[in-house]
TrEMBL record:
Residues 7-115 form the CENP-V/GFA domain. Coiled coil: none annotated. Belongs to the Gfa family. GO terms for molecular function: carbon-sulfur lyase activity; metal ion binding. Keywords: Metal-binding, Zinc. InterPro entries: CENP-V-like, CENP-V/GFA, Mss4-like_sf. This is Uncharacterized conserved protein.
């Protein structure tokens, strides 16, 4: 398993910024409607491993389907930076859009297929 590292990142315009600690061991390649249309790839973190450093006032929440995942988008550039939700056991989770990590190269990361379309 990879070692955990601290990463920084944010939206395209830079108004929303975060810091997180993760090993990037599991990154989704989900085929649900929103992940497909937006090209989202999420890493799931405990809330204590994610800190929003700037831009809380620049976030707009987007809910769809069962309203279980609260997507957080920058109101200026429209980037879906992260989402908040709950795991099946009820514990809170942050779904980080891995594309928002500074310097990330998606082609170098291993993706885990998720069949969100048929859930």
């Amino acid at each position: 398993m990879p070692d955990s590292k601290t990463y920084t990142g944010g939206c395209h315009c830079g108004l929303v910024r975060f810091e997180c600690t993760t090993d990037l061991a599991m990154i989704t390649a989900c085929n649900c409607s929103i992940c497909t249309k937006k090209g989202l790839h999420f890493a799931f973190l405990s809330p204590k491993s994610f800190q929003l450093r700037a831009g809380e006032d620049n976030l707009k929440e987007y809910l769809f389907n069962k309203h279980a995942i609260r997507h957080q988008l920058c109101v200026d550039c429209g980037v879906d930076v992260f989402a908040r939700g709950n795991k099946p056991d009820g514990s809170e989770v942050v779904a980080l859009n891995v594309s928002c990590i500074d310097g990330v190269e998606l082609a170098k990361l291993s993706m885990t297929p998720i069949d969100g379309r048929n859930r």
